[in-house]
Amino acid sequence: EQTDKIIEAINRIINKSHKLKLIVIYIKNEFKQSIILDIVTKGALKEGTIGAEIDPRIKIINNNIYVKHIMDSFSNAKLDKFLIKNRVNHIYFTGLDAKYCVDKTVQAAFNRGYKISVIRDAIASSSDKDRDDKLEEFEQMGAYVITVDELL
């Protein structure tokens, strides 16, 4: 139910970021061959499959695409190197799933000293309640939780 609204919100952010010449980074989640993961994800995130690709409705404006194989996006060391090289100190989060991948990456970003903003209406989860509970947790951790309109 959240997907269409979130993709629209993310594309608004991408468009504005592009106009302002701000850095946009994309994260792909891929799993290597694993019987257990295939069962849990129904093969949706298997490396090399269409399910592991960025949703085609998301506007791609650059090649800043990083692949992760576990929930934490910083598990790909190239991401942190890119952020350091480009002197990024504040990260704005969009994406899914608030309870898992977004959560692990937000925690990893805090551990690295980044300032964090999470865009409320550009984050998905299995339910609105799960998303809202996690957003409240992010605020308690010190993240700014804002809407797309507040950002733009």
Structural key phrases:
3-stranded parallel sheet; alpha/beta; globular; two-stranded parallel ribbon; 152 residues; 43% helix
Describe, in plain words, how this protein is organized in 3D.
The chain is of the alpha/beta class and 152 residues long. 43% of the residues lie in helices and 18% in strands. It is built from 6 helices and 5 strands. It has helices spanning 3-19, 35-41, 77-85, 98-111, 128-141, 148-151; strands spanning 26-29, 65-68, 90-96, 115-124, 144-146. It has a 3-stranded parallel beta sheet with strand order 3-4-5. It has a two-stranded parallel ribbon with strand order 1-2. Strand 3, helix 4 and strand 4 form a beta-alpha-beta unit. Helix 4 (98-111) runs parallel beside helix 5 (128-141). The longest helix has 17 residues, at 3-19. The two termini are 24 Å apart. The model has no long low-confidence stretch (mean pLDDT 91).
Could you spell the SSE succession in H and E letters?
A: HEHEHEHEHEH
> On the 0-100 scale, what is the average pLDDT?
91
- Unreliably modeled segments: none
Rounded Rg: 15 Å
- Write down the overall geometry: globular
Largest sheet: 3 strands, parallel
Strand order, biggest sheet?
3-4-5
Counting DSSP E segments of at least 2 residues, the number of strands comes to 5
Secondary structure category: alpha/beta
Count of runs of 4 or more consecutive helical residues = 6
Helical fraction: 40-55%
Amino- and carboxy-terminal Cα gap:
24 Å
Q: How much of the polypeptide forms β-strand, as a percent range?
A: 15-25%
